[in-house]
Specification:
Blueprint (H helix, E strand, L loop, with lengths): L2 E7 L1 H4 L7 E2 L5 E4 L2 E5 L5 E4 L7 E7 L2 E9 L3 H11 L12 E9 L2 E5 L9 E5 L2 E5 L2 H8 L5 H9 L4 H4 L9 E2 L4 E6 L2 E6 L15 H20 L20 H8 L3 E7 L4 H12 L18 E8 L6 H10 L5 E8 L24 H8 L3 E5 L4 H5 L5 H7 L7 H11 L4 H14 L2 H14 L7 H9 L14 H16 L9 H23 L6 E3 L5 H8 L3 H4 L4 H12 L15 H13 L1 H7 L4 H4 L5 H12 L6 H19 L5 E2 L18 H9 L3
Parallel strand pairs: 15-16, 15-18, 16-17, 18-19
Antiparallel strand pairs: 1-5, 1-11, 2-3, 3-20, 4-5, 6-7, 7-8, 8-9, 9-13, 10-11, 10-12, 13-14
Length: about 700
């Protein structure tokens, strides 16, 4: 796990802080474990973890004006210096406009600016500390620093309304640790903090000017190509070259690497047969240069890109995708590796893993992804995020109605009617979109709060049911039906409190708001997945979540997004513009059934171990669920009843995360007493928000 951490203190406290750390509880010096100091007092900054030398750059104009960029950034040192001079005047957006995926920190005098990204894959957290503010790109180090307890209201909201920013707001699983929203920056001035947005938000009152579809797709192509080229131009890495113990009888370099669990040297990519991973693999293999493995290592073919396909033998339905992947891999610049997965790679099959910064549903499938990535490269491209940045959220149909573009609803509604086989579908979808277009944001949040209190979770199934449910400002999460009444009431109070805040509302159209929320949720889950499946010396690259790619995708007109198969057509056009036109038949055809089938099979196979996990769950100790209710749901789902599997995955992953957190004995800081870590007293319930409200009103 890699992160950066620093703080800004008031002038009085800054005089007591040295570059080696800060004063802790008993007068000891505090600094992060395994860190490298980027700059010192009075506002120090550290990089923590196994950062590569080329991933950490510091450019300095003078002793008190400097910029640190951590991650993959395509800007030259001169461009960083020019950006630093521009940032002295307070401008922020240009700091996020370089190709790549990175975190930028700028210090100008006593003003420190930390920029988050647009998607939320590189978040920024902060907490009050030492009469100032400490910040980091991970929440757990800050929780250790202040000995934070769990925020049970946040955990309840994660289960009851994970896609609703009004429920989560800026909280984290740790009480007192806050996160800045995507598209914002944290600005610190001698300890005082401010969260400022650097990206323009679409207006709810005035429609955005119509973009030319061809120009918008060209912009997506240029951004994707530049994102891939930035990774290819970075230095190549040979994992474990400095720790190779030397020759072993009967083992060559590749066998020794595999025995140590090291990735293949060079660059590779996922090749699932889907359009996103296929686009990145073909772009990386088609760009000039030597994109693949390092000569003399791995396959020995320096000009070939390592393409990894996961073939799930435990669930049917992906045969066509695997066949398409094989056809794409016939490219002479690709070296194809197929990783076969049986029951040992099913969801829930292996629930052991490292502690992650936050909980996420991907914890139950981490072993599945790790099996694929273990055969990958030191720098590995993945297609995560393409669906969220390119596809149209169903709520965008309401945006089209607000812009008086009714005729563009015909094709998506016709596709839903064809899938459902009912002539009533167009009227139902149009009516739901019309209601959403006329519903204020505040009303939508209040409706959700009422639904949670009344435990109304029934929704029709199928593609039409999912689309109708998505045509709302906010909706309950799939795990909400299994929460206790107290937990649901607490989330309801959080929602009602959000509507009472001044300036409430997203300032966006409902479709744009829901799409940005879905992207932020996916990016947050991906960040946790990277930590859960982390293989030493390997980097996962997700170009679709780069700032410039996200910006380019947001210029795509809604009329283009809502067309059935729009994502595949956009990526086909991107490849054609890059000179790649020979794609196999059926390329881009969707396939979701195999993932659901694997989840159900994994749940059935692991039913006994999951029931044991919920014999005495920490979730019940926290008052979020009743153990018998969850055990009953697990038995029913294993027996084949149509229950929301995503909700059960949320419950299991949160229980796993809590157990790993409480079993932890270390801390992220040195020079601190043993008690200086997050959740030092274990699960200790506090008075829930609903009880506080009742007490304030004098209710019994």
């Amino acid at each position: 796990m890699r992160w950066l951490v620093g703080w800004s203190s008031t002038a009085a406290v800054a005089a007591e802080i040295g570059s080696a750390g800060a004063t802790g509880f008993d007068g000891e010096t505090v600094h992060p474990v395994g860190s490298q100091l980027l700059w010192g007092d009075p506002d120090p900054l550290w990089a923590v973890g196994d950062w590569r030398p080329d991933e950490v750059r510091v450019v300095q104009a003078d002793a008190r004006t400097r910029i640190a960029v951590l991650g993959i950034c395509g800007a030259t040192d001169e461009e960083l210096r020019l950006g630093l001079f521009t940032a002295r005047g307070g401008a922020l957006r240009h700091l996020t406009a370089w190709p790549g995926s990175y975190t930028a920190v700028v210090q100008v005098g006593r003003r420190v600016t930390v920029c988050g990204d647009l998607a939320g894959a590189r978040p920024v957290f902060y907490t009050p500390w030492a009469s100032g503010t400490a910040y980091a790109t991970a929440a757990l180090p800050l929780a250790d620093l202040i000995e934070a307890n769990l925020d049970f209201g946040h955990l309840a909201a994660l289960l009851a309304a994970p896609d609703v920013p009004a429920a989560l707001h800026d909280s984290t699983p740790y009480a007192g640790v806050r996160r800045i929203p995507p598209g914002h920056a944290l600005i610190l001035r001698t300890g005082a903090r401010e969260v400022a947005g650097y990206e323009q938000v679409a207006s709810l009152a005035v429609a955005a000017p119509s973009a030319d579809p061809d120009s918008a797709v060209d912009a997506v192509r240029d951004a994707l190509v530049e994102a891939v080229r930035t990774r290819l131009s970075a230095p190549r890495h040979v994992p474990g070259a400095d720790i190779d113990p030397g020759p072993v009888p009967g083992m060559g370099p590749a066998e020794r690497r595999a025995a140590r669990g090291m990735p293949v040297p060079g660059i590779g990519a996922d090749l699932s047969g889907g359009p996103a991973s296929g686009t990145l693999a073909l772009l990386a293999a088609g760009l000039p240069g030597m994109p693949g493995t390092v000569l003399g290592h791995g396959t020995g073919a320096g000009e070939r890109l390592l393409a990894v396909t996961f073939n799930d033998l435990s669930a049917a339905g992906r045969e066509a995708e695997v066949q398409r992947a094989g056809t794409l891999a016939a490219n002479p610049r690709l070296h194809h590796v197929v990783v076969a997965g049986g029951e040992e790679t099913l969801p829930y099959a292996d629930l052991d893993g490292p502690l992650t910064d936050e909980p996420a549903q991907c914890l139950v499938t981490a072993a599945r992804h790790r099996a694929r990535l273990a055969s990958g490269s030191a720098d590995h491209f993945t297609g995560y995020g393409a669906r969220q940045v390119l596809d149209a959220h169903p709520a965008r149909l309401a945006d089209l109605l607000m812009d008086r573009k009714r005729r563009h609803l015909v094709r998506p509604v016709a596709a839903l009617a064809k899938a459902d086989g009912s002539v009533l579908v167009p009227a139902r979808v149009y009516g739901a979109a019309r209601r959403l277009a006329r519903t204020p944001y505040r009303t939508g949040v209040e409706v959700l709060a009422e639904r949670l209190l009344q435990r109304r979770f029934d929704e029709s199934g199928g593609a039409v049911g999912a689309s109708l449910a998505a045509l709302a400002w906010a909706r309950p999460g799939p795990a909400a039906r299994w929460l206790t009444g107290e937990a649901l009431a607490e989330v309801s109070v959080r929602l009602q409190g959000s509507t009472n805040r001044s300036g409430v509302g997203p300032g966006q159209r409902p479709g744009d708001h829901r799409a940005r929320t879905a992207l932020a949720r996916h990016a947050a889950d991906l960040r946790i997945l990277e930590q859960a499946v982390e293989i030493r010396s390997q980097r996962l690259h997700v170009p679709f979540l780069d700032n410039q790619v996200v910006r380019a995708c947001r210029t795509l007109p809604e009329t283009l997004r809502v067309r059935p198969g729009a994502r595949a057509e956009i990526l086909r056009t991107v490849l054609k513009g890059a000179g790649i036109a020979d794609l196999p038949p059926g390329w881009g055809a969707p396939s979701h059934g195999s993932a659901a089938a694997a989840a159900r099979t994994g749940l059935r196979v692991a039913a006994d171990s999951l029931l044991t996990l919920f014999d005495t769950p920490l979730l019940a100790q926290a008052g979020l669920v009743e153990a018998r209710v969850v055990r009953k749901a697990l038995r029913a789902a294993a027996a084949g009843e149509p229950l929301p599997l995503d909700g059960l995955a949320d419950l299991v992953s949160l229980e796993l995360w809590l157990r790993r957190l409480l079993a932890r004995r270390g801390t992220c800081w040195t020079g601190t007493p043993a008690r200086a870590r997050a959740v030092p007293a274990g699960i200790t319930r506090v008075i829930p928000a609903v009880e506080s409200v009742r007490g304030a009103r004098g209710l019994t």
